[in-house]
Protein backbone atom coordinates (compact mmCIF):
# COMPACT_ATOMS: atom_id res chain seq x y z
CA UNK A 1 0.00 0.00 0.00
CA UNK A 2 2.82 2.39 0.85
CA UNK A 3 4.66 1.52 -2.36
CA UNK A 4 1.56 2.16 -4.41
CA UNK A 5 1.14 5.52 -2.73
CA UNK A 6 4.78 6.47 -3.42
CA UNK A 7 4.43 5.43 -7.08
CA UNK A 8 1.30 7.54 -7.48
CA UNK A 9 3.02 10.56 -5.92
CA UNK A 10 6.00 10.11 -8.27
CA UNK A 11 3.76 9.96 -11.36
CA UNK A 12 1.90 13.06 -10.24
CA UNK A 13 5.20 14.88 -9.70
CA UNK A 14 6.43 13.97 -13.21
CA UNK A 15 3.18 15.04 -14.77
CA UNK A 16 3.21 18.31 -12.90
CA UNK A 17 6.82 18.93 -13.97
CA UNK A 18 6.13 18.31 -17.65
CA UNK A 19 3.05 20.56 -17.56
CA UNK A 20 5.09 23.28 -15.89
CA UNK A 21 7.77 23.05 -18.62
CA UNK A 22 5.12 23.06 -21.34
CA UNK A 23 3.69 26.31 -20.00
CA UNK A 24 7.16 27.88 -20.05
CA UNK A 25 8.70 27.05 -23.46
CA UNK A 26 12.40 27.58 -24.07
CA UNK A 27 15.45 26.31 -25.95
CA UNK A 28 18.47 24.44 -24.66
CA UNK A 29 21.83 24.91 -26.44
CA UNK A 30 24.87 22.70 -25.90
CA UNK A 31 28.31 23.28 -27.49
CA UNK A 32 30.46 20.15 -27.44
CA UNK A 33 33.73 19.83 -29.44
CA UNK A 34 32.88 22.83 -31.59
CA UNK A 35 29.44 21.53 -32.41
CA UNK A 36 26.28 23.36 -31.40
CA UNK A 37 23.40 21.22 -30.23
CA UNK A 38 20.11 23.02 -29.75
CA UNK A 39 16.74 21.54 -28.72
CA UNK A 40 13.58 22.38 -26.87
CA UNK A 41 13.71 22.37 -23.07
CA UNK A 42 10.89 19.85 -22.65
CA UNK A 43 12.56 17.48 -25.11
CA UNK A 44 15.82 17.70 -23.20
CA UNK A 45 14.01 16.87 -19.94
CA UNK A 46 12.33 13.86 -21.52
CA UNK A 47 15.67 12.59 -22.86
CA UNK A 48 17.22 12.99 -19.41
CA UNK A 49 14.45 11.05 -17.70
CA UNK A 50 14.60 8.28 -20.31
CA UNK A 51 18.37 8.03 -19.84
CA UNK A 52 17.96 7.64 -16.06
CA UNK A 53 15.31 4.96 -16.55
CA UNK A 54 17.56 3.08 -18.99
CA UNK A 55 20.44 3.12 -16.52
CA UNK A 56 18.20 1.78 -13.76
CA UNK A 57 16.90 -1.02 -15.97
CA UNK A 58 20.41 -1.93 -16.99
CA UNK A 59 21.54 -2.03 -13.34
CA UNK A 60 18.61 -4.25 -12.38
CA UNK A 61 19.40 -6.66 -15.20
CA UNK A 62 23.09 -6.89 -14.27
CA UNK A 63 22.22 -7.40 -10.61
CA UNK A 64 19.72 -10.11 -11.50
CA UNK A 65 22.31 -12.03 -13.48
CA UNK A 66 24.90 -11.61 -10.73
CA UNK A 67 22.65 -12.85 -7.89
CA UNK A 68 20.73 -15.49 -9.84
CA UNK A 69 22.65 -18.51 -8.39
CA UNK A 70 21.97 -17.39 -4.83
CA UNK A 71 18.36 -16.57 -5.65
CA UNK A 72 17.78 -19.97 -7.19
CA UNK A 73 19.34 -21.69 -4.16
CA UNK A 74 17.26 -19.63 -1.76
CA UNK A 75 14.10 -20.39 -3.70
CA UNK A 76 14.58 -24.14 -3.52
CA UNK A 77 15.61 -23.91 0.14
CA UNK A 78 12.48 -21.96 0.99
CA UNK A 79 10.35 -24.40 -0.94
CA UNK A 80 11.92 -27.30 0.94
CA UNK A 81 11.41 -25.54 4.27
CA UNK A 82 7.78 -24.86 3.44
CA UNK A 83 7.24 -28.50 2.64
CA UNK A 84 8.91 -29.45 5.92
CA UNK A 85 6.72 -27.12 7.96
CA UNK A 86 3.67 -28.41 6.15
CA UNK A 87 4.66 -31.97 7.08
CA UNK A 88 5.34 -30.88 10.68
CA UNK A 89 1.93 -29.23 10.93
CA UNK A 90 0.23 -32.32 9.52
CA UNK A 91 2.14 -34.53 11.95
CA UNK A 92 1.18 -32.45 14.99
CA UNK A 93 -2.45 -32.53 13.95
CA UNK A 94 -2.24 -36.31 13.48
CA UNK A 95 -0.61 -36.71 16.91
CA UNK A 96 -3.36 -34.65 18.49
CA UNK A 97 -5.95 -36.84 16.77
CA UNK A 98 -4.22 -40.03 17.96
CA UNK A 99 -3.04 -41.17 14.50
CA UNK A 100 0.37 -42.57 15.42
CA UNK A 101 1.09 -43.99 11.95
CA UNK A 102 0.59 -40.68 10.15
CA UNK A 103 2.46 -38.82 12.90
CA UNK A 104 5.48 -41.11 12.49
CA UNK A 105 5.37 -40.72 8.72
CA UNK A 106 5.21 -36.94 8.93
CA UNK A 107 8.01 -36.87 11.53
CA UNK A 108 10.30 -38.83 9.21
CA UNK A 109 9.42 -36.55 6.28
CA UNK A 110 10.04 -33.47 8.40
CA UNK A 111 13.48 -34.71 9.43
CA UNK A 112 14.35 -35.16 5.75
CA UNK A 113 13.32 -31.60 4.94
CA UNK A 114 14.29 -29.68 8.10
CA UNK A 115 17.19 -30.25 10.45
CA UNK A 116 16.27 -30.99 14.07
CA UNK A 117 18.68 -28.36 15.40
CA UNK A 118 16.86 -25.75 13.34
CA UNK A 119 13.34 -26.79 14.38
CA UNK A 120 13.02 -28.26 17.93
CA UNK A 121 9.35 -29.06 17.39
CA UNK A 122 10.46 -32.20 15.55
CA UNK A 123 11.40 -33.71 18.93
CA UNK A 124 7.96 -32.81 20.25
CA UNK A 125 6.27 -34.55 17.31
CA UNK A 126 8.35 -37.68 17.80
CA UNK A 127 7.67 -37.64 21.56
CA UNK A 128 3.92 -37.36 20.96
CA UNK A 129 4.02 -40.21 18.46
CA UNK A 130 5.95 -42.35 20.95
CA UNK A 131 3.39 -41.62 23.68
CA UNK A 132 0.55 -42.64 21.39
CA UNK A 133 2.32 -45.91 20.60
CA UNK A 134 3.04 -46.53 24.28
CA UNK A 135 6.82 -46.17 23.92
CA UNK A 136 7.32 -44.12 27.07
CA UNK A 137 11.08 -44.68 27.28
CA UNK A 138 11.55 -43.15 23.84
CA UNK A 139 9.24 -40.28 24.78
CA UNK A 140 11.27 -39.56 27.93
CA UNK A 141 14.46 -39.44 25.86
CA UNK A 142 12.89 -36.86 23.57
CA UNK A 143 11.70 -34.81 26.54
CA UNK A 144 15.21 -34.91 28.01
CA UNK A 145 16.59 -33.58 24.71
CA UNK A 146 14.06 -30.77 24.83
CA UNK A 147 14.88 -30.05 28.48
CA UNK A 148 18.54 -29.52 27.50
CA UNK A 149 17.61 -27.07 24.74
CA UNK A 150 17.09 -23.49 26.02
CA UNK A 151 14.25 -22.93 23.55
CA UNK A 152 12.26 -25.97 24.65
CA UNK A 153 13.44 -26.39 28.26
CA UNK A 154 10.05 -25.58 29.76
CA UNK A 155 8.27 -27.94 27.37
CA UNK A 156 10.70 -30.75 28.13
CA UNK A 157 10.39 -30.31 31.90
CA UNK A 158 6.62 -30.43 31.68
CA UNK A 159 6.78 -33.64 29.66
CA UNK A 160 9.15 -35.22 32.17
CA UNK A 161 6.91 -34.06 35.03
CA UNK A 162 3.82 -35.65 33.50
CA UNK A 163 5.68 -38.89 32.84
CA UNK A 164 6.91 -39.01 36.43
CA UNK A 165 3.36 -38.43 37.67
CA UNK A 166 2.11 -41.23 35.44
CA UNK A 167 4.68 -43.65 36.85
CA UNK A 168 3.96 -42.57 40.43
CA UNK A 169 7.49 -41.22 40.92
CA UNK A 170 6.40 -38.31 43.07
CA UNK A 171 9.92 -37.37 44.15
CA UNK A 172 11.08 -37.09 40.53
CA UNK A 173 7.95 -35.13 39.64
CA UNK A 174 8.62 -32.77 42.53
CA UNK A 175 12.19 -32.18 41.33
CA UNK A 176 11.08 -31.44 37.77
CA UNK A 177 8.37 -29.07 39.00
CA UNK A 178 10.73 -27.21 41.34
CA UNK A 179 13.36 -26.91 38.60
CA UNK A 180 10.78 -25.46 36.23
CA UNK A 181 9.48 -23.11 38.94
CA UNK A 182 12.99 -21.87 39.74
CA UNK A 183 13.83 -21.18 36.10
CA UNK A 184 10.39 -19.89 35.10
CA UNK A 185 8.26 -18.86 38.11
CA UNK A 186 5.60 -17.56 35.72
CA UNK A 187 4.61 -21.11 34.70
CA UNK A 188 1.26 -21.83 36.41
CA UNK A 189 1.58 -25.63 36.38
CA UNK A 190 5.10 -25.61 37.85
CA UNK A 191 4.25 -23.04 40.50
CA UNK A 192 1.05 -24.81 41.54
CA UNK A 193 2.68 -28.25 41.63
CA UNK A 194 5.64 -26.96 43.65
CA UNK A 195 3.28 -25.19 46.02
CA UNK A 196 1.32 -28.38 46.62
CA UNK A 197 4.46 -30.49 47.10
CA UNK A 198 5.87 -28.08 49.65
CA UNK A 199 2.53 -28.00 51.43
CA UNK A 200 2.35 -31.79 51.54
CA UNK A 201 5.81 -31.86 53.11
CA UNK A 202 4.74 -29.31 55.72
CA UNK A 203 7.17 -26.67 54.42
CA UNK A 204 4.73 -23.85 54.99
CA UNK A 205 7.38 -21.10 54.99
CA UNK A 206 8.74 -22.17 51.59
CA UNK A 207 5.21 -22.49 50.23
CA UNK A 208 4.31 -18.96 51.38
CA UNK A 209 7.53 -17.60 49.83
CA UNK A 210 6.74 -19.28 46.51
CA UNK A 211 3.20 -17.93 46.61
CA UNK A 212 4.55 -14.41 47.06
CA UNK A 213 6.75 -14.90 43.98
CA UNK A 214 3.74 -16.05 41.99
CA UNK A 215 1.80 -12.99 43.08
CA UNK A 216 4.63 -10.67 41.98
CA UNK A 217 4.90 -12.50 38.63
CA UNK A 218 1.10 -12.20 38.18
CA UNK A 219 0.74 -15.96 37.86
CA UNK A 220 -2.33 -15.85 40.13
CA UNK A 221 -4.76 -13.03 40.67
CA UNK A 222 -4.89 -11.12 43.93
CA UNK A 223 -8.04 -12.80 45.26
CA UNK A 224 -6.71 -16.32 44.67
CA UNK A 225 -3.32 -15.42 46.14
CA UNK A 226 -4.92 -14.02 49.30
CA UNK A 227 -7.11 -17.10 49.66
CA UNK A 228 -4.20 -19.53 49.26
CA UNK A 229 -2.03 -17.49 51.60
CA UNK A 230 -4.79 -17.61 54.23
CA UNK A 231 -4.96 -21.40 53.83
CA UNK A 232 -1.19 -21.76 54.25
CA UNK A 233 -1.14 -19.48 57.29
CA UNK A 234 -4.00 -21.43 58.87
CA UNK A 235 -2.22 -24.72 58.24
CA UNK A 236 0.96 -23.38 59.84
CA UNK A 237 -1.04 -22.09 62.79
CA UNK A 238 -2.66 -25.49 63.24
CA UNK A 239 0.75 -27.16 63.36
CA UNK A 240 2.11 -24.82 66.01
CA UNK A 241 -1.07 -24.56 68.13
CA UNK A 242 0.18 -27.01 70.76
CA UNK A 243 3.80 -25.83 70.93
CA UNK A 244 3.45 -22.10 70.21
CA UNK A 245 -0.08 -20.75 70.89
CA UNK A 246 1.05 -17.14 70.44
CA UNK A 247 2.52 -17.85 67.00
CA UNK A 248 -0.59 -19.80 66.03
CA UNK A 249 -2.73 -16.86 67.13
CA UNK A 250 -0.73 -14.40 65.00
CA UNK A 251 -0.88 -16.62 61.91
CA UNK A 252 -4.61 -17.23 62.32
CA UNK A 253 -5.32 -13.52 62.77
CA UNK A 254 -3.23 -12.75 59.66
CA UNK A 255 -5.30 -15.28 57.74
CA UNK A 256 -8.51 -13.61 58.94
CA UNK A 257 -7.23 -10.27 57.65
CA UNK A 258 -6.91 -11.81 54.19
CA UNK A 259 -10.21 -13.75 54.27
CA UNK A 260 -12.54 -12.34 56.91
CA UNK A 261 -14.99 -15.28 57.01
CA UNK A 262 -12.47 -18.13 56.93
CA UNK A 263 -13.91 -20.54 59.51
CA UNK A 264 -10.78 -22.70 60.18
CA UNK A 265 -8.67 -19.61 60.87
CA UNK A 266 -11.29 -18.24 63.26
CA UNK A 267 -11.46 -21.54 65.15
CA UNK A 268 -7.68 -21.78 65.55
CA UNK A 269 -7.45 -18.13 66.62
CA UNK A 270 -10.18 -18.71 69.20
CA UNK A 271 -8.49 -21.85 70.55
CA UNK A 272 -5.18 -20.02 70.90
CA UNK A 273 -6.88 -17.12 72.68
CA UNK A 274 -8.73 -19.52 74.99
CA UNK A 275 -5.38 -20.95 76.05
CA UNK A 276 -4.17 -17.44 76.81
CA UNK A 277 -7.34 -16.85 78.87
CA UNK A 278 -8.57 -14.15 76.48
CA UNK A 279 -12.12 -15.38 76.29
CA UNK A 280 -13.70 -12.04 75.44
CA UNK A 281 -11.46 -11.42 72.42
CA UNK A 282 -11.97 -14.99 71.19
CA UNK A 283 -15.74 -14.62 71.55
CA UNK A 284 -15.61 -11.37 69.59
CA UNK A 285 -13.77 -13.08 66.72
CA UNK A 286 -16.26 -15.94 66.67
CA UNK A 287 -19.18 -13.51 66.66
CA UNK A 288 -17.74 -11.59 63.70
CA UNK A 289 -17.35 -14.76 61.65
CA UNK A 290 -20.78 -16.01 62.75
CA UNK A 291 -22.42 -12.87 61.34
CA UNK A 292 -21.22 -13.61 57.81
CA UNK A 293 -20.83 -17.39 57.90
CA UNK A 294 -22.81 -19.23 60.60
CA UNK A 295 -21.02 -22.53 61.03
CA UNK A 296 -21.80 -25.27 63.57
CA UNK A 297 -18.16 -25.51 64.68
CA UNK A 298 -18.12 -21.77 65.34
CA UNK A 299 -21.29 -22.15 67.39
CA UNK A 300 -19.94 -25.05 69.45
CA UNK A 301 -16.70 -23.20 70.17
CA UNK A 302 -18.62 -20.10 71.23
CA UNK A 303 -21.05 -21.97 73.48
CA UNK A 304 -18.25 -23.92 75.18
CA UNK A 305 -15.89 -20.98 75.48
CA UNK A 306 -15.53 -21.47 79.23
CA UNK A 307 -15.22 -25.00 80.48
CA UNK A 308 -16.75 -24.16 83.86
CA UNK A 309 -20.01 -22.73 82.53
CA UNK A 310 -23.26 -24.38 83.51
CA UNK A 311 -25.75 -25.68 80.99
CA UNK A 312 -27.90 -22.62 81.62
CA UNK A 313 -25.01 -20.29 80.77
CA UNK A 314 -24.38 -22.24 77.58
CA UNK A 315 -28.03 -21.93 76.65
CA UNK A 316 -27.80 -18.16 77.08
CA UNK A 317 -24.74 -18.01 74.82
CA UNK A 318 -26.52 -20.09 72.19
CA UNK A 319 -29.52 -17.76 72.34
CA UNK A 320 -27.16 -14.83 71.84
CA UNK A 321 -25.87 -16.36 68.62
CA UNK A 322 -29.45 -16.99 67.54
CA UNK A 323 -30.21 -13.32 68.13
CA UNK A 324 -27.31 -12.39 65.84
CA UNK A 325 -28.59 -14.64 63.03
CA UNK A 326 -32.31 -15.23 63.59
CA UNK A 327 -34.18 -17.82 61.54
CA UNK A 328 -30.94 -19.59 60.71
CA UNK A 329 -30.79 -23.38 60.70
CA UNK A 330 -27.44 -23.63 62.46
CA UNK A 331 -28.48 -21.12 65.13
CA UNK A 332 -31.76 -22.94 65.79
CA UNK A 333 -30.07 -26.34 66.03
CA UNK A 334 -27.42 -24.93 68.35
CA UNK A 335 -30.07 -23.45 70.65
CA UNK A 336 -32.09 -26.67 70.58
CA UNK A 337 -29.05 -28.72 71.59
CA UNK A 338 -28.19 -26.33 74.42
CA UNK A 339 -31.81 -26.32 75.61
CA UNK A 340 -31.89 -30.13 75.63
CA UNK A 341 -28.71 -30.22 77.71
CA UNK A 342 -30.30 -27.71 80.09
CA UNK A 343 -33.45 -29.83 80.43
CA UNK A 344 -35.75 -27.34 78.70
CA UNK A 345 -37.29 -29.91 76.37
CA UNK A 346 -40.14 -27.68 75.26
CA UNK A 347 -37.82 -25.03 73.91
CA UNK A 348 -35.50 -27.66 72.46
CA UNK A 349 -38.35 -29.32 70.60
CA UNK A 350 -39.69 -26.00 69.28
CA UNK A 351 -36.28 -24.87 68.00
CA UNK A 352 -35.52 -28.23 66.41
CA UNK A 353 -38.88 -28.32 64.65
CA UNK A 354 -38.35 -24.76 63.40
CA UNK A 355 -34.94 -25.74 62.03
CA UNK A 356 -36.43 -28.80 60.33
CA UNK A 357 -39.08 -26.63 58.69
CA UNK A 358 -36.38 -24.37 57.23
CA UNK A 359 -34.10 -27.22 56.15
CA UNK A 360 -35.43 -30.76 56.57
CA UNK A 361 -32.10 -32.52 56.86
CA UNK A 362 -30.67 -35.43 58.77
CA UNK A 363 -29.26 -33.54 61.75
CA UNK A 364 -32.56 -31.87 62.62
CA UNK A 365 -34.44 -35.19 62.83
CA UNK A 366 -31.63 -36.86 64.77
CA UNK A 367 -31.79 -34.03 67.28
CA UNK A 368 -35.56 -34.51 67.58
CA UNK A 369 -34.90 -38.20 68.25
CA UNK A 370 -32.39 -37.28 70.98
CA UNK A 371 -34.90 -34.89 72.55
CA UNK A 372 -37.57 -37.59 72.48
CA UNK A 373 -35.20 -40.07 74.07
CA UNK A 374 -34.18 -37.65 76.80
CA UNK A 375 -37.70 -36.41 77.57
CA UNK A 376 -40.01 -39.41 77.22
CA UNK A 377 -37.85 -42.42 76.44
CA UNK A 378 -40.59 -43.64 74.09
CA UNK A 379 -38.74 -45.89 71.66
CA UNK A 380 -41.58 -45.81 69.16
CA UNK A 381 -41.41 -42.05 68.81
CA UNK A 382 -37.61 -42.18 68.76
CA UNK A 383 -37.66 -44.69 65.91
CA UNK A 384 -40.15 -42.49 64.07
CA UNK A 385 -37.71 -39.57 64.04
CA UNK A 386 -34.84 -41.89 63.14
CA UNK A 387 -36.81 -43.10 60.14
CA UNK A 388 -37.32 -39.50 59.04
CA UNK A 389 -33.58 -38.88 59.37
CA UNK A 390 -32.81 -41.83 57.09
CA UNK A 391 -34.92 -40.29 54.31
CA UNK A 392 -33.69 -36.73 54.79
CA UNK A 393 -30.69 -35.16 52.98
CA UNK A 394 -27.36 -35.41 54.72
CA UNK A 395 -25.87 -32.62 56.79
CA UNK A 396 -23.09 -30.45 55.34
CA UNK A 397 -19.53 -31.58 56.02
CA UNK A 398 -15.96 -30.88 54.90
CA UNK A 399 -15.77 -32.49 51.45
CA UNK A 400 -12.88 -32.58 48.97
CA UNK A 401 -12.81 -34.70 45.80
CA UNK A 402 -15.51 -36.99 47.20
CA UNK A 403 -13.66 -37.48 50.51
CA UNK A 404 -15.57 -36.53 53.67
CA UNK A 405 -13.46 -35.38 56.61
CA UNK A 406 -14.44 -34.74 60.20
CA UNK A 407 -12.32 -31.59 60.26
CA UNK A 408 -10.89 -29.09 57.79
CA UNK A 409 -7.60 -29.95 56.08
CA UNK A 410 -5.44 -27.65 53.92
CA UNK A 411 -4.88 -30.32 51.24
CA UNK A 412 -7.04 -32.95 49.63
CA UNK A 413 -5.91 -36.45 50.69
CA UNK A 414 -7.07 -37.75 47.30
CA UNK A 415 -5.36 -35.40 44.82
CA UNK A 416 -3.15 -33.25 47.06
CA UNK A 417 -4.88 -30.10 45.80
CA UNK A 418 -4.52 -27.02 47.98
CA UNK A 419 -7.68 -25.46 49.44
CA UNK A 420 -9.85 -28.30 48.17
CA UNK A 421 -12.20 -28.73 51.14
CA UNK A 422 -15.62 -27.13 51.00
CA UNK A 423 -18.45 -27.05 53.52
CA UNK A 424 -21.31 -28.69 51.66
CA UNK A 425 -23.53 -31.75 51.59
CA UNK A 426 -21.43 -34.85 50.82
CA UNK A 427 -23.74 -36.21 48.15
CA UNK A 428 -26.36 -34.41 46.11
CA UNK A 429 -29.86 -35.70 45.72
CA UNK A 430 -30.46 -37.78 42.60
CA UNK A 431 -32.70 -35.94 40.20
CA UNK A 432 -35.77 -37.78 39.07
CA UNK A 433 -39.52 -38.03 39.43
CA UNK A 434 -40.80 -37.34 42.93
CA UNK A 435 -42.86 -40.27 44.16
CA UNK A 436 -45.45 -40.12 46.88
CA UNK A 437 -43.84 -40.42 50.28
CA UNK A 438 -40.30 -39.96 48.96
CA UNK A 439 -39.87 -36.43 50.29
CA UNK A 440 -39.56 -35.49 53.94
CA UNK A 441 -42.11 -33.05 55.34
CA UNK A 442 -41.91 -31.89 58.93
CA UNK A 443 -45.64 -31.28 59.19
CA UNK A 444 -46.38 -34.74 57.81
CA UNK A 445 -43.86 -36.25 60.22
CA UNK A 446 -45.51 -34.49 63.15
CA UNK A 447 -48.95 -35.69 62.07
CA UNK A 448 -47.75 -39.28 61.74
CA UNK A 449 -45.92 -39.17 65.08
CA UNK A 450 -47.28 -42.07 67.14
CA UNK A 451 -48.99 -41.16 70.41
CA UNK A 452 -47.01 -41.40 73.56
CA UNK A 453 -47.26 -44.85 75.07
CA UNK A 454 -48.60 -44.95 78.62
CA UNK A 455 -46.78 -47.11 81.13
CA UNK A 456 -48.79 -50.23 81.86
CA UNK A 457 -49.50 -50.51 85.63
CA UNK A 458 -48.05 -53.58 87.24
CA UNK A 459 -51.11 -55.54 88.48
CA UNK A 460 -50.50 -58.40 90.81
CA UNK A 461 -53.53 -60.42 91.79
CA UNK A 462 -53.37 -62.68 94.73
CA UNK A 463 -55.13 -65.94 94.41
CA UNK A 464 -57.78 -66.25 97.04
CA UNK A 465 -58.27 -69.40 99.06
CA UNK A 466 -54.64 -70.26 98.55
CA UNK A 467 -53.28 -72.63 101.16
CA UNK A 468 -50.78 -71.30 103.62
CA UNK A 469 -48.06 -73.64 104.65
CA UNK A 470 -46.95 -73.35 108.24
CA UNK A 471 -43.37 -73.57 109.21
CA UNK A 472 -42.44 -77.15 109.79
CA UNK A 473 -41.61 -78.48 113.21
CA UNK A 474 -39.28 -81.19 114.13
CA UNK A 475 -41.93 -83.89 114.27
CA UNK A 476 -44.81 -83.03 112.04
CA UNK A 477 -45.82 -80.79 109.22
CA UNK A 478 -49.04 -78.89 109.82
CA UNK A 479 -50.93 -77.23 106.97
CA UNK A 480 -53.45 -74.58 107.89
CA UNK A 481 -56.22 -73.63 105.53
CA UNK A 482 -58.01 -70.32 105.58
CA UNK A 483 -61.76 -70.55 105.97
CA UNK A 484 -63.50 -70.41 102.66
CA UNK A 485 -65.55 -67.29 102.22
CA UNK A 486 -68.85 -67.32 100.44
CA UNK A 487 -68.66 -66.05 96.93
CA UNK A 488 -71.03 -63.20 96.08
CA UNK A 489 -73.86 -63.92 93.72
CA UNK A 490 -73.15 -62.95 90.17
CA UNK A 491 -74.77 -59.70 89.13
CA UNK A 492 -77.04 -59.28 86.19
CA UNK A 493 -74.36 -57.59 84.22
CA UNK A 494 -72.02 -60.40 84.90
CA UNK A 495 -74.66 -62.96 84.02
CA UNK A 496 -75.11 -61.56 80.57
CA UNK A 497 -72.63 -62.89 78.05
CA UNK A 498 -69.72 -60.54 77.42
CA UNK A 499 -69.72 -58.87 74.03
CA UNK A 500 -66.68 -59.68 71.90
CA UNK A 501 -64.22 -56.80 72.00
CA UNK A 502 -63.24 -55.02 68.85
CA UNK A 503 -60.24 -56.61 67.20
CA UNK A 504 -57.11 -54.50 67.62
CA UNK A 505 -54.68 -54.25 64.73
CA UNK A 506 -51.08 -55.38 64.90
CA UNK A 507 -51.99 -58.26 67.22
CA UNK A 508 -52.93 -55.94 70.07
CA UNK A 509 -49.64 -54.04 70.15
CA UNK A 510 -48.59 -50.57 69.15
CA UNK A 511 -48.20 -49.92 65.39
CA UNK A 512 -44.48 -49.26 65.72
CA UNK A 513 -43.84 -52.39 67.87
CA UNK A 514 -46.08 -55.29 66.77
CA UNK A 515 -44.46 -57.74 69.18
CA UNK A 516 -45.31 -61.43 69.23
CA UNK A 517 -48.48 -62.66 67.61
CA UNK A 518 -51.07 -63.53 70.29
CA UNK A 519 -53.14 -66.53 69.25
CA UNK A 520 -55.83 -65.79 71.82
CA UNK A 521 -56.75 -62.51 70.12
CA UNK A 522 -57.29 -64.14 66.74
CA UNK A 523 -60.91 -64.87 65.81
CA UNK A 524 -61.89 -68.47 65.29
CA UNK A 525 -62.00 -69.48 61.65
CA UNK A 526 -65.50 -69.53 60.30
CA UNK A 527 -66.42 -72.81 58.64
CA UNK A 528 -69.71 -74.17 57.42
CA UNK A 529 -69.41 -77.53 59.14
CA UNK A 530 -68.72 -78.02 62.83
CA UNK A 531 -68.55 -81.43 64.37
CA UNK A 532 -68.62 -80.22 67.98
UniProtKB/TrEMBL annotation:
Residue stretches of biased makeup (Polar residues): 458-468
Biased composition (Basic and acidic residues): 514-532
InterPro entries the record matches: HemY_N (IPR010817), Mms48 (IPR016982), TPR-like_helical_dom_sf (IPR011990)
Keyword Disulfide bond (UniProt): no
Annotated TM spans: 41-62, 83-102
Coiled-coil stretches noted in the UniProt entry, renumbered to this chain: none
Gene Ontology cellular component terms for the protein in this record: membrane
Composition bias, Low complexity: 483-501
Protein origin, superkingdom: Bacteria
Keywords, in A-Z order: Membrane, Transmembrane, Transmembrane helix
Ranges for domain HemY N-terminal: 26-133
Protein name: Heme biosynthesis protein HemY
Source species of the chain: Rhizobium lusitanum
Amino acid sequence: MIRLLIFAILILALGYGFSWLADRPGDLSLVWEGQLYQTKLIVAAAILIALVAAVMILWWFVRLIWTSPHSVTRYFRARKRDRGYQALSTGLIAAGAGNALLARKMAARTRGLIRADQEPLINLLEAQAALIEGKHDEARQKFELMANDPETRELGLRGLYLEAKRLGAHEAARQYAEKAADQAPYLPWAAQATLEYRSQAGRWDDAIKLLDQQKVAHVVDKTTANRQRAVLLTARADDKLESDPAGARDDALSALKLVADFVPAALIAAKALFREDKVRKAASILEQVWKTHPHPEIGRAYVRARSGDSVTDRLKRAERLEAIRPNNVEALLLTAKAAMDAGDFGKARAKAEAAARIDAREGAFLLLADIEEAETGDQGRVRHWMAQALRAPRDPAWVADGFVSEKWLPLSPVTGRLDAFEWKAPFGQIEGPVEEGSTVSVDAALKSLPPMREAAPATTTEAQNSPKVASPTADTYVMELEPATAKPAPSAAAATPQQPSEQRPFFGGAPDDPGVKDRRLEPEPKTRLKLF
